[in-house]
TrEMBL record:
Subunit-structure text: Homodimer.
Presence of keyword Amino-acid biosynthesis: yes
Source species, domain of life: Bacteria
Source organism of this protein record: Candidatus Oscillibacter excrementigallinarum
GO CC annotation terms, alphabetical: cytosol
Known catalytic reactions: (2S,6S)-2,6-diaminopimelate = meso-2,6-diaminopimelate
Localisation: Cytoplasm
Annotated protein name in UniProt: Diaminopimelate epimerase
Amino acid sequence: MRFWKMNGAGNDFIVLNNLEEHLPVEQLPQMARTLCERHLSIGADGLMVVDAPTQGGDYRMLFYNSDGSIGEMCGNGARCICRYGFENGLAGETQTVETTAGIVTGKRIDRRLYRIRLNDPTTVRLDCPVAVDGVTYACSYVELGDPGIPHAVVPYANLRQADENELRELGRAIRWNKAFPKGANVNFYEIVGEDLLFERTFERGVEDFTYACGTGTGSVVTVLTLQGKVSGQGVQVDMTGGRLVIDAERVHARIASLYLTGPTNVVCKGEVTDEDLMIQM
Protein backbone atom coordinates (compact mmCIF):
# COMPACT_ATOMS: atom_id res chain seq x y z
CA MET A 1 0.00 0.00 0.00
CA ARG A 2 1.66 3.19 -1.20
CA PHE A 3 1.34 6.49 0.66
CA TRP A 4 2.44 10.12 0.63
CA LYS A 5 3.02 12.10 3.82
CA MET A 6 2.27 15.80 3.28
CA ASN A 7 1.73 18.92 5.34
CA GLY A 8 0.22 22.32 4.71
CA ALA A 9 1.66 24.91 7.12
CA GLY A 10 2.28 22.09 9.60
CA ASN A 11 -1.19 20.51 9.31
CA ASP A 12 -0.06 17.00 8.32
CA PHE A 13 -1.74 14.18 6.45
CA ILE A 14 -1.28 10.68 5.09
CA VAL A 15 -2.57 10.35 1.52
CA LEU A 16 -3.70 7.05 -0.01
CA ASN A 17 -4.90 6.55 -3.58
CA ASN A 18 -7.95 4.29 -3.50
CA LEU A 19 -8.19 4.37 -7.27
CA GLU A 20 -5.21 2.01 -7.07
CA GLU A 21 -5.51 0.40 -3.62
CA HIS A 22 -9.24 -0.51 -3.71
CA LEU A 23 -9.55 -0.44 0.09
CA PRO A 24 -12.98 -1.16 1.61
CA VAL A 25 -14.43 2.13 2.83
CA GLU A 26 -15.56 0.53 6.09
CA GLN A 27 -11.91 -0.16 6.98
CA LEU A 28 -10.75 3.44 6.53
CA PRO A 29 -11.67 4.73 10.03
CA GLN A 30 -9.55 2.03 11.68
CA MET A 31 -6.74 2.69 9.21
CA ALA A 32 -6.86 6.38 10.16
CA ARG A 33 -6.66 5.60 13.88
CA THR A 34 -3.70 3.27 13.38
CA LEU A 35 -1.67 5.18 10.79
CA CYS A 36 -2.15 8.60 12.42
CA GLU A 37 -0.80 7.49 15.82
CA ARG A 38 2.49 9.39 16.05
CA HIS A 39 4.37 7.10 18.40
CA LEU A 40 3.26 3.79 16.93
CA SER A 41 2.89 4.45 13.19
CA ILE A 42 3.46 7.15 10.54
CA GLY A 43 1.63 9.86 12.48
CA ALA A 44 -0.59 12.64 11.16
CA ASP A 45 -3.52 14.92 11.94
CA GLY A 46 -5.64 13.05 9.42
CA LEU A 47 -5.93 10.49 6.63
CA MET A 48 -6.96 11.58 3.14
CA VAL A 49 -8.12 9.06 0.57
CA VAL A 50 -8.44 9.78 -3.15
CA ASP A 51 -11.43 7.95 -4.65
CA ALA A 52 -13.56 7.95 -7.78
CA PRO A 53 -15.74 11.04 -8.34
CA THR A 54 -19.52 10.78 -8.16
CA GLN A 55 -20.55 14.36 -8.98
CA GLY A 56 -18.47 15.19 -12.04
CA GLY A 57 -15.34 16.30 -10.19
CA ASP A 58 -11.79 15.27 -11.00
CA TYR A 59 -11.77 12.96 -7.98
CA ARG A 60 -13.32 12.53 -4.57
CA MET A 61 -11.55 13.33 -1.29
CA LEU A 62 -12.44 11.27 1.78
CA PHE A 63 -11.11 12.77 4.99
CA TYR A 64 -10.72 11.04 8.35
CA ASN A 65 -9.50 12.69 11.55
CA SER A 66 -6.80 10.97 13.55
CA ASP A 67 -9.44 9.46 15.85
CA GLY A 68 -11.13 7.79 12.87
CA SER A 69 -14.09 10.16 12.71
CA ILE A 70 -15.15 11.47 9.32
CA GLY A 71 -14.29 15.10 8.59
CA GLU A 72 -16.59 17.08 6.31
CA MET A 73 -13.61 18.77 4.69
CA CYS A 74 -10.14 20.05 5.55
CA GLY A 75 -8.81 23.24 4.00
CA ASN A 76 -5.09 22.52 4.29
CA GLY A 77 -5.80 18.92 3.38
CA ALA A 78 -7.58 20.04 0.23
CA ARG A 79 -4.61 22.20 -0.75
CA CYS A 80 -2.29 19.22 -0.25
CA ILE A 81 -4.52 16.83 -2.13
CA CYS A 82 -4.67 19.28 -5.04
CA ARG A 83 -0.89 19.04 -5.29
CA TYR A 84 -1.15 15.26 -5.06
CA GLY A 85 -3.79 15.27 -7.80
CA PHE A 86 -1.70 17.47 -10.08
CA GLU A 87 1.56 15.58 -9.58
CA ASN A 88 -0.13 12.21 -10.10
CA GLY A 89 -1.93 13.25 -13.26
CA LEU A 90 -5.43 13.14 -11.78
CA ALA A 91 -6.16 16.77 -12.64
CA GLY A 92 -4.64 19.86 -14.21
CA GLU A 93 -3.45 23.09 -12.61
CA THR A 94 -7.07 23.98 -11.88
CA GLN A 95 -9.12 21.16 -10.42
CA THR A 96 -12.43 20.23 -8.89
CA VAL A 97 -12.44 18.11 -5.74
CA GLU A 98 -15.55 16.45 -4.32
CA THR A 99 -15.73 16.56 -0.50
CA THR A 100 -18.37 15.57 2.02
CA ALA A 101 -19.13 19.28 2.57
CA GLY A 102 -19.44 20.02 -1.17
CA ILE A 103 -17.29 20.85 -4.18
CA VAL A 104 -13.92 22.53 -3.61
CA THR A 105 -11.95 24.07 -6.45
CA GLY A 106 -8.17 24.27 -6.32
CA LYS A 107 -5.46 26.09 -8.26
CA ARG A 108 -1.73 25.53 -8.50
CA ILE A 109 0.14 28.82 -8.02
CA ASP A 110 3.63 27.32 -8.20
CA ARG A 111 5.32 24.06 -7.27
CA ARG A 112 4.51 24.33 -3.56
CA LEU A 113 1.89 27.09 -3.29
CA TYR A 114 -1.77 26.12 -3.76
CA ARG A 115 -5.00 28.10 -3.46
CA ILE A 116 -8.46 26.67 -2.92
CA ARG A 117 -11.93 28.10 -2.73
CA LEU A 118 -13.22 26.99 0.64
CA ASN A 119 -16.81 25.87 1.07
CA ASP A 120 -19.02 28.93 1.41
CA PRO A 121 -20.20 29.96 4.90
CA THR A 122 -23.69 28.50 5.34
CA THR A 123 -24.21 29.55 8.97
CA VAL A 124 -22.78 32.66 10.61
CA ARG A 125 -23.68 33.82 14.12
CA LEU A 126 -21.51 36.78 15.04
CA ASP A 127 -22.72 37.00 18.64
CA CYS A 128 -22.69 33.55 20.20
CA PRO A 129 -21.14 33.82 23.69
CA VAL A 130 -20.27 30.63 25.58
CA ALA A 131 -20.04 30.04 29.32
CA VAL A 132 -17.28 27.88 30.81
CA ASP A 133 -16.98 27.42 34.59
CA GLY A 134 -19.05 30.51 35.24
CA VAL A 135 -17.06 32.72 32.86
CA THR A 136 -18.66 34.00 29.66
CA TYR A 137 -16.41 34.23 26.61
CA ALA A 138 -17.11 36.30 23.53
CA CYS A 139 -17.60 33.92 20.62
CA SER A 140 -18.90 33.71 17.07
CA TYR A 141 -20.00 30.58 15.24
CA VAL A 142 -19.46 29.67 11.59
CA GLU A 143 -20.25 26.62 9.47
CA LEU A 144 -18.60 26.16 6.09
CA GLY A 145 -20.30 23.97 3.48
CA ASP A 146 -23.23 21.58 3.75
CA PRO A 147 -23.14 19.59 5.97
CA GLY A 148 -21.36 22.40 7.71
CA ILE A 149 -17.89 22.28 9.22
CA PRO A 150 -18.47 23.85 12.67
CA HIS A 151 -16.12 26.52 13.99
CA ALA A 152 -16.20 28.60 17.16
CA VAL A 153 -14.26 31.86 16.80
CA VAL A 154 -12.94 33.24 20.08
CA PRO A 155 -10.83 36.40 20.64
CA TYR A 156 -7.98 35.85 23.13
CA ALA A 157 -5.61 38.58 24.32
CA ASN A 158 -1.87 37.85 24.39
CA LEU A 159 -2.47 34.55 22.62
CA ARG A 160 1.21 33.88 21.88
CA GLN A 161 2.00 34.07 25.59
CA ALA A 162 -0.99 32.00 26.74
CA ASP A 163 -0.38 29.05 29.04
CA GLU A 164 -0.61 25.99 26.78
CA ASN A 165 -2.40 23.77 29.28
CA GLU A 166 -4.93 26.41 30.30
CA LEU A 167 -5.68 27.20 26.67
CA ARG A 168 -6.06 23.50 25.85
CA GLU A 169 -8.55 22.97 28.68
CA LEU A 170 -10.55 26.00 27.57
CA GLY A 171 -10.49 24.77 23.98
CA ARG A 172 -11.70 21.35 25.06
CA ALA A 173 -14.52 22.85 27.13
CA ILE A 174 -15.74 25.06 24.28
CA ARG A 175 -15.35 22.22 21.76
CA TRP A 176 -17.88 20.16 23.79
CA ASN A 177 -20.04 23.11 24.89
CA LYS A 178 -23.79 22.47 24.74
CA ALA A 179 -24.12 25.60 22.57
CA PHE A 180 -22.68 23.50 19.74
CA PRO A 181 -24.76 20.32 19.37
CA LYS A 182 -22.36 18.67 16.93
CA GLY A 183 -19.25 20.02 18.60
CA ALA A 184 -16.95 22.65 17.15
CA ASN A 185 -13.39 23.35 16.19
CA VAL A 186 -12.27 26.17 18.46
CA ASN A 187 -10.27 28.99 16.89
CA PHE A 188 -8.59 31.38 19.30
CA TYR A 189 -7.31 34.51 17.59
CA GLU A 190 -5.63 37.84 18.24
CA ILE A 191 -5.38 40.77 15.84
CA VAL A 192 -1.68 41.74 15.87
CA GLY A 193 -1.53 44.20 12.94
CA GLU A 194 -3.43 45.51 9.97
CA ASP A 195 -4.90 42.43 8.25
CA LEU A 196 -2.54 40.32 10.35
CA LEU A 197 -3.71 37.71 12.88
CA PHE A 198 -2.28 35.06 15.15
CA GLU A 199 -4.44 31.97 15.61
CA ARG A 200 -4.48 28.67 17.51
CA THR A 201 -7.06 25.98 16.65
CA PHE A 202 -8.22 23.17 18.93
CA GLU A 203 -9.55 20.64 16.42
CA ARG A 204 -12.30 18.15 17.04
CA GLY A 205 -11.30 14.68 15.89
CA VAL A 206 -7.69 15.43 16.79
CA GLU A 207 -8.77 16.66 20.25
CA ASP A 208 -5.77 18.92 20.57
CA PHE A 209 -4.16 21.91 18.93
CA THR A 210 -2.93 21.42 15.39
CA TYR A 211 -0.16 23.43 13.76
CA ALA A 212 -2.64 25.00 11.34
CA CYS A 213 -6.30 24.83 10.30
CA GLY A 214 -7.41 26.08 6.89
CA THR A 215 -11.16 26.09 7.48
CA GLY A 216 -10.46 27.65 10.87
CA THR A 217 -8.58 30.57 9.38
CA GLY A 218 -11.38 31.00 6.83
CA SER A 219 -13.95 31.08 9.61
CA VAL A 220 -12.01 33.63 11.67
CA VAL A 221 -11.56 35.94 8.68
CA THR A 222 -15.25 35.51 7.78
CA VAL A 223 -16.22 36.82 11.22
CA LEU A 224 -13.70 39.67 11.31
CA THR A 225 -14.55 40.79 7.78
CA LEU A 226 -18.25 40.97 8.62
CA GLN A 227 -17.38 42.86 11.82
CA GLY A 228 -15.25 45.32 9.83
CA LYS A 229 -12.07 44.46 11.76
CA VAL A 230 -10.12 43.25 8.70
CA SER A 231 -10.40 44.15 5.02
CA GLY A 232 -11.03 40.57 3.88
CA GLN A 233 -8.37 40.88 1.17
CA GLY A 234 -5.01 39.18 1.62
CA VAL A 235 -5.54 38.70 5.36
CA GLN A 236 -2.45 36.99 6.76
CA VAL A 237 -2.96 34.45 9.51
CA ASP A 238 0.07 33.15 11.40
CA MET A 239 -0.21 29.80 13.14
CA THR A 240 2.30 27.50 14.79
CA GLY A 241 3.16 25.84 11.48
CA GLY A 242 3.39 28.91 9.27
CA ARG A 243 1.36 31.57 7.48
CA LEU A 244 -1.90 31.19 5.56
CA VAL A 245 -3.62 33.89 3.50
CA ILE A 246 -7.39 34.33 3.31
CA ASP A 247 -9.42 36.35 0.81
CA ALA A 248 -13.06 36.87 1.72
CA GLU A 249 -15.42 38.62 -0.70
CA ARG A 250 -18.07 40.49 1.24
CA VAL A 251 -21.41 41.22 -0.40
CA HIS A 252 -23.56 43.27 1.96
CA ALA A 253 -23.99 41.18 5.14
CA ARG A 254 -22.59 37.90 3.83
CA ILE A 255 -19.39 36.37 2.54
CA ALA A 256 -19.93 35.34 -1.09
CA SER A 257 -16.61 33.55 -1.59
CA LEU A 258 -13.71 32.47 0.59
CA TYR A 259 -10.21 31.55 -0.61
CA LEU A 260 -7.30 29.92 1.23
CA THR A 261 -3.71 30.16 -0.04
CA GLY A 262 -0.70 28.55 1.54
CA PRO A 263 2.33 26.26 1.19
CA THR A 264 2.42 22.51 0.75
CA ASN A 265 5.22 20.11 1.59
CA VAL A 266 5.72 16.54 0.39
CA VAL A 267 7.49 15.07 3.41
CA CYS A 268 7.97 11.52 2.17
CA LYS A 269 6.59 8.83 -0.12
CA GLY A 270 6.68 5.15 0.63
CA GLU A 271 5.01 1.86 1.37
CA VAL A 272 2.93 1.16 4.46
CA THR A 273 4.36 -1.89 6.24
CA ASP A 274 2.72 -1.33 9.64
CA GLU A 275 2.33 -4.85 11.03
CA ASP A 276 -0.28 -3.81 13.59
CA LEU A 277 -2.44 -2.48 10.75
CA MET A 278 -2.11 -5.72 8.81
CA ILE A 279 -3.27 -7.70 11.86
CA GLN A 280 -6.29 -5.40 12.31
CA MET A 281 -7.30 -5.62 8.69
